[in-house]
Specification:
homopentamer; 316 residues; alpha+beta; Beta Polymerase, domain 2; 2 domains; 9 helices; 7 strands; 60% helix; transport (chains A, B, C, D, E); Magnesium transport protein CorA (chains A, B, C, D, E); transmembrane helix (chains A, B, C, D, E); MgTranspt_CorA/ZnTranspt_ZntB (chains A, B, C, D, E)
């Protein structure tokens, strides 16, 4: 469905061909594009009288979220984030908002379907309102999509928080670095979308009615919440990293303790052997027939006592 | 008490049978359900003309807190948290708020009784006001119930904070993980209930009067306080975990110190034994009759001196 | 002075007997109770027509700060904290605020005297205003008393912050735990008093005039400042505890270093002794007449060199 | 282009010679200076009647951002930061804002060009507005230039955050110190520019119209965001430094572990050798023909077993 | 200049003798005292009809910042901080603000001169305004003086932050403790001055005109900024202390590593010596003529290999 045009007013919501755009003066016209062919863009651009810069932005697809004012329309770029196969990707959403139309361009089919359903099912009174409310619906949906993304991140962050104590392995550091990068993407995106919404709320666009501004405030609150969550997760990651370092340190110390225990057991034994290696003229034990075996037996006994003592002290 | 219907106005508060609902046009009608049979729900649904989606939500019982607007009523879902046998559980509270009635569905008998008492005892002027005030009373009660839950968590958190220093055992980590999960549940619940109340305050529902909005602001403040407390406890847990890691590290180091002291006592003794194990032609001590015993005695003396010295230095 | 009744207006402030309460219709009447006998409470209760619940609360004396509305008066409970012999205690202050009277009940004689002086000295224009301003004066005094308490805590916290580095002894942990508990009490008390004041400011009581609300805002600001201070001290305690753990760790490591230095000095000596304990046929030194003493001398020299070297390196 | 004078109104934007300044009473006059000769400054100073203090400030070029009010104009100093060859430098921007003119003096050619383009291309409706809007454009541009600077810092900070774990080398500390100093410069600059903008917004200058104040609010928000980012990066640096210390500590401990393993392997071998160095009369092994080689073989076997055991335990 | 009296209005600013105070009814009178003799204070007190408590406060000179209302004037105490020979001292500034006069008493000559210059040079339109604006000028100057103090502290804090890593010496802890105490003084002072200004802004004094309140808001913002800076520096100190502890720990560990390396080199050598100390009947090496020297040579070789290996591993 590369191109769909819908016209709706309080009475009806119908699909129309692109060339009939002018035949519905009392309807809100929604032109929905998705992976359009170049000539489709061009024909729409000439129909809506789009500025070459707008067309260029939509073609290149690498612009950051922003709002640009033109005399006859407002050009809005925003991001819709989602996790695809553990990879965080940002779908672009381009919107051209005019007096009685909204043009949208995005590869996020899911969002298009979602808004179509809202319009067709007459939900949220969309059909009673203008194209700016439709644009708000898109922005709202885009911001709502932050939540599943953050939920996924939260799951990883929470698991990491447990793992850094239980199994402080090197790969957890890599997971943390990945999540940190994802959070950076989310924060940057949220930051810029906040700017977009804040700019629309301040009345930069004449096509946004005061009534829609009230709804935008809601979206604005959600984006602020998103940013707070990002900060929270980032804090948790930082403290998890500290805990990881402590865990590694404690594991190392635990090994050191084991090694030191071996050393501590060997030293008294060596000492005893050294004693009977002394060359004194008169050392009665050396003359005993079973002196050697008695000393070996004593060494074994001493080892057992030391191990038992360390066990009791919970050092082993 | 699966089903109770109460009708009240400024003069009286009486229990009525369900079928008499229409006979009290000037009363506020409160239909209270608790573990209802399916046909009870159905008969009420047809009486109040409930949407199938509302019925489905109430039947399944796993929905998150939210507000849904319908032309004739507002459907509100919220959580009422409590600790049952050390387990944090979230009772659902479903409310259908209409022009002159409120339907509530919850398994939390305690809350139903509490509100019934308020109505019957004419407290807080409930009977002078509409069903929205009754709904507020429920929301208020639900949010108030966060406090005992957080008190219980605070007790555990405070004890953990002491224990991580005094007895840094592994099981404390498990306790901390459990509390952390409970805090997560509380935070999520509070987060969503805040959204519900914020949505009602913004006037999303036509059945909420401005007067009740003022009271909702109070509930909103309480939920914000709850969220602050959750953050505080979370911070304490994080810092307790760091302290735990330091405690474990210090315990390990203490053991290392003990072991090293044993080693440090053995080494000079071994050295002395080695000295008399040397094969020099002329070593006068070796010829002494009691040289061996003199050396043994000196070793014992040296050990005593070292132990005394370490004691004095407070190393033992 | 279990019972004192004062009547004042813009012209005069006089002590009157309780039974003359009705004879001064144009005066503000202040009934001040302190450790009253039961019959005194009862006679006042019947005079002021107090609700049994109010009387019960005042008798039991264990209620938390709160505000209760009654048709003819507002019942306020608040805490006045102070340190008595290093113990943090919370004196209760009960107030019954009516149209032209204020009844106060507290054991905190100091506060009663303070307010009496203000009234008698005609300070702050108290006598030009109603009983709500008198109630405000009490609340203000109660909140002001947080400051000396927090000053005392600050002194301890600051000293602890120094001591954890200089003398990381176990008893400091106990001091920290005690202070932490005191802070908890202060925070809880401040939290609830904030609720009380916030409730009075929102106009819950008809006996509070708008003019007094402005003054209450001031008290509200002070209680918020108190809570900020509590958080600050708590943060300092947490970071002090971390520093304590590091201090202990560093002390332990310092001991380890001393022990390791002893070991490091012994090992080369033992090695030399071992060398001359070898059984080679041809070892010229063994044949020397003073070989033994030469080796002993060399060992002493080596020890001196090592100690000098470690000194130079600042390891000792 | 040391000196350029532009005059513009809603119809046109033209370059004019300095002496024609008075011939365009209905135009906004923009006098742009860059590395001016001294006599140029003097001639402009006499034309605009500049106070000697203003001239002195512009000559010396080391003043901090500030606003000074004079009867006929407002004198504004601000910073424009940029990275030049990894060095953070602050270009000064001096502005003299009068009723119908703006004089600017800066070495930042890039910013001059940027604003010239905006005026010539009639962007942002600059030409419909007064010289205060032109001054705002400069301030806005200056604040926008914080972002690339902070982006560069962010890149370094993020890399440092990874490196402190992977390669905790000494030079990273130096990088951190450098970035910390850059952040200090940015913060001080942002702090003072905030003061400048805040002062202009409060209406300190009669040459700033209310309409421009609205735009200044936008710049104010951006500068606040800048300061938040600076704090964030600073926090990351602090926590990175902690991680660096832990990393260094863990590397050291790792080395200690290796050394201790060597010691732990040597000790049992030494013990065995000591045993056969004992001088007991009756030690059967000593008499065996291949006893010596048997013991050597056993020592090699024991070493292999210990190494295998340590490998299995993942200590090596 | 213990006593100076200036009278000014929009036309002139002249010094007058004290006794002529009443001869300039249309002028603002500024009585400036500095280290006054007691009889000077008394004569002024009787002229201005000062309350004995005010005179007492000014004589004793140890009062904390506060505002006291009297019928005919407002009495203000504030602090002016400065560093004198590395010592932070707080000069008191006492002000008595009446309807048409301001009396100031301070030892801070610098501030008096500063304000005199402002008046004489007719800066900031002081002479067009009342004595409250003059009082504001003093308060503003006092708050401005926080900045150089904080700059000095910042320099120390930044240097400490570097030194704790590079040279973690004991004296840095003392510097930190000193700075921490200075910050405490600044915070307390700022806290109380904030209270003073906040009280004046709320209209507690009838001698403060609404116009001056606007200017006071500016001072209020500055004092808030001061308090934020204090918190920032305090945070840096806390984290620096943690870094110091880690630095000390790492230095200790570095020493331990050196010592352990010595031990690790000695142990294999000792082992070899022990081997040739065994008493086996048949040990061919013992019979070799140069066996002893071969073994000594092998020991030297082994030592060299170990040192080379440790060098390669970067352990030395």
């Amino acid at each position: 469905m590369p191109l769909q045009v819908m016209a709706y007013n309080i009475d009806e919501a119908i699909y129309i061909p692109l060339q009939d755009l002018d035949k519905y003066p009392d309807h809100v016209k929604w032109i929905s594009l998705s992976s359009p062919a170049e000539d489709e863009i061009n024909s729409i651009a000439s129909l809506l009288d789009l500025h070459p810069l707008v067309i260029e932005d939509m073609m290149q697809g690498e612009e950051l979220p922003k709002v640009n004012e033109y005399p006859k329309y407002t050009f809005i770029i925003t991001d819709i984030l989602e996790f695809k196969e553990d990879e965080l990707i940002a779908n672009k959403l381009y919107m051209v908002l005019g007096k009685d139309f909204l043009m949208t361009l995005t590869e996020d089919i899911d969002t298009i379907r979602f808004v179509q359903n809202l319009v067709v099912s007459k939900a949220r009174n969309i059909i009673e309102q203008g194209p700016d409310f439709l644009a708000y619906t898109f922005l709202d949906r885009g911001v709502d999509k932050f939540y599943p993304v953050l939920d996924e991140i939260e799951d990883i962050v929470m698991e990491v928080e447990d793992l850094v104590i239980e199994q402080p392995d090197k790969w957890i550091l890599n997971v943390m670095t990945d999540v940190r990068r994802d959070l950076l993407i989310v924060r940057k995106s949220a930051w810029l979308i906040r700017e977009v919404i804040s700019s629309l709320m301040r009345g930069s666009s004449p096509f946004i009615t005061p009534r829609t501004v009230i709804y935008l405030r809601d979206v604005y609150d959600h984006i602020i919440q998103t940013m707070e969550l990002v900060e929270t997760y980032r804090d948790i990651l930082v403290s998890s990293r500290d805990t990881y370092m402590s865990s590694v340190s404690n594991s190392l110390n635990e090994v050191m303790k084991q090694l030191t225990i071996i050393a501590t057991i060997m030293l008294p034994l060596s000492f005893i052997a050294s004693v009977y290696g002394m060359n004194f003229k008169f050392m009665p034990e050396l003359e005993w027939e079973y002196g050697y075996f008695a000393v070996l037996g004593f060494m074994i006994l001493l080892t057992a006592i030391m191990i038992a003592y360390f066990r009791k002290k919970k050092w082993i």
